[in-house]
Fold Histidinol dehydrogenase.
Amino acid sequence: MKTFLYPEPADWAALSKRPVQELSQLREGVQQTFDLVRQRGDAALIELAAKFDKASLQDVWVSEAEISAAISQVSQELKAAIALAYNNIQVFHEAQREPVKQVETIAGVTCWRKSVAIQKVGLYIPGGSAPLFSTLLMLGIPAQIAGCQEIVLATPPGANGTVHPSILYTAHVLGISRILKAGGAQAIAALAFGTETVPAVDKIFGPGNQYVTAAKQMVTQLGVAIDMPAGPSEVLVIADDSADPDFVAADLLSQAEHGPDSQVVFVTNSEKQLQDVKAAIATQVAQLPRQAVAQQALNNSVGVVLNTSEEALDFSNQYAPEHLILSVANPEALAEKVTQAGSVFMGHYSPESVGDYASGTNHTLPTNGYARNYSGVSLDSFVKKITFQHLTREGLERIGPAVETMAEAEGLRAHKHAVSIRLAKK
Amino acid sequence: MKTFLYPEPADWAALSKRPVQELSQLREGVQQTFDLVRQRGDAALIELAAKFDKASLQDVWVSEAEISAAISQVSQELKAAIALAYNNIQVFHEAQREPVKQVETIAGVTCWRKSVAIQKVGLYIPGGSAPLFSTLLMLGIPAQIAGCQEIVLATPPGANGTVHPSILYTAHVLGISRILKAGGAQAIAALAFGTETVPAVDKIFGPGNQYVTAAKQMVTQLGVAIDMPAGPSEVLVIADDSADPDFVAADLLSQAEHGPDSQVVFVTNSEKQLQDVKAAIATQVAQLPRQAVAQQALNNSVGVVLNTSEEALDFSNQYAPEHLILSVANPEALAEKVTQAGSVFMGHYSPESVGDYASGTNHTLPTNGYARNYSGVSLDSFVKKITFQHLTREGLERIGPAVETMAEAEGLRAHKHAVSIRLAKK
């Protein structure tokens, strides 16, 4: 951990600079994958699964038999944990429903908006060492609450040709039955353009490697929406002397284990706390199975001492972290001042991992400074908010003259006429 | 107007196909503009204003004297119209505030989200023949309600070096004092990257020509958010025999006058209504100052007769129009079934132009089929929704074991440990 004592605000941005993502050199390869999937559909997916996933597939879709098998393979303990998480995520996202609220902006002019589900969505869950069934919960639950008509899950098969049981079980719990065995840019292509068996979707969600990220970026220019731009995961922890250094160290390490490019930032108003946390990290990291990964992330991590917790929060607001943990005696006061963060964890018993799995908040959050201008995934991400208006003749009489004047001033005579012709007829 | 009688659903998509936007050949030129603005800042903006706007600028910023002059140049009538529109837009967007709602997902686990303004936003208003002060209202009012700290307006100067009085007056009413005299890709570059006097913003809003559209698309890959992807404006009108063909014709023409690429679609369950509307269009178009433009758009417009209004609405849902006008006897029943549209106008006294100017709804809406997967601009567009959570020790005891189980199953031991270490200490 690189440490900085009392840096000046002008230097803050430089201390916690994020790595630059350079995806442009991937685009040509991704474009070739796109072309292949567009031209040959499922056959291309089968070919690419053999090439990249070492999987020999007969069919790109998970079968009912595979789902049944998965259900019996998942432990009761994990099923109970998923059920608890499901409930909390459901409760929190249900509360995000926006009721229709009719507003009479002026007598006779009634306007409202209504949330309507995006019809077809694709959820991408990466493969690799960790089966991210938790991400499937985070995407699938709001999709179900929104009422999306078609939910397609895409995830790469293992070398054995099937998908990890915990993913299949979670999909089953969510009522998602269309599960495509495809990963990487080819999965994004199949979801964006469709194939003979895959429906083209309106919006694609979920994390992935740099090819997935580049592919998602590219499809946004072809009419498909995505959840948000991606980048390496990150946490910023603010702690004062009330914090237990063992807890803080554990929180920093749970970010560091994500990957060598994970961003870990620690800010405190106490030099002693910084020393104690560093010592606790050294002890704890040795016990981790992903020690090598965590150590690499820690080498790039930053520890900053500032004068006060308020100053620490100013630092955090300029950094705009994906996750912000306020391990301080009075987190409420600091939380009030947060202007840029994805998700905020308050107090000594709110580690980031509760939000990653089971407290109810969504864990798909803006990274890479995007907390400045993007929200995390929520029910909003799965709906369009359509506006409606209804005017009575009296309402039109009331606002019509203003519309006529403004349309005339903008040189749009037919806009004016659409009002005038109505007001002229009795 | 090309007319189609009772086409089969399988053919609907082909009837109302939109023109393909091809922006990729513009990217190189836009990139050069980006490089120029990044390298030379305001000097580049002045140079490009001379080149593209034929304007000789001393300063890229509108002066207080220019604003004062504009205030005296705008008529009392227009000022009153703007005041009325302002009020209605304000009322409708104020109602979109989301109160903070704390949710106890399980005892001891409290989660909520809070809307916080995006700090720095850029509003782009195009120049050209029509001074779009109404768009400035539509973007500026929610930006003010959200509480954005920095609002920069960019709009190209006229050849006289200044900005249209109605734009400056509207900015004044909105309390926006930073008005940059820049248009095109150079304006987007200045807002995205900043110059020595322009602050780099977090999100850019507003319509523009194809260079602006390409530039906005490109900056999304560089960390800056935009309101939504752009395309030509469009309306779909559904009318039954209760509609007055003069009103319907006026509505179709008010879309057609926007530009030769405007998309105009008319769907009815009455062959007679189609004939009557066509006749009314022929009469009305002759009276328009923008007749040539409207005629070009009309040549590409589509009239479709289907069996019922319900079928007409199915047609509309597959088209996903920016604006949908329901000129039918019972618009409420049809409106219930709308799943894809930007904004819906119900009944015989709700022409699109009221929503364009003064009813209160926003007129920055998804075009080009993006109503499938994007919402129009609203207060949401100017905020991030940050999630918060606070767990008591008892709350952590309640969900901690589930978190431990799930983290273990995903192979993330440090995530598990952040819970275990807390539960282990008394």
User: Anything to note?
Assistant: The longest helix of chain B spans residues 27-52. DSSP finds 16 helices and 14 strands in chain B. Chain B touches chain A through 133 residues (CB under 8 Å).
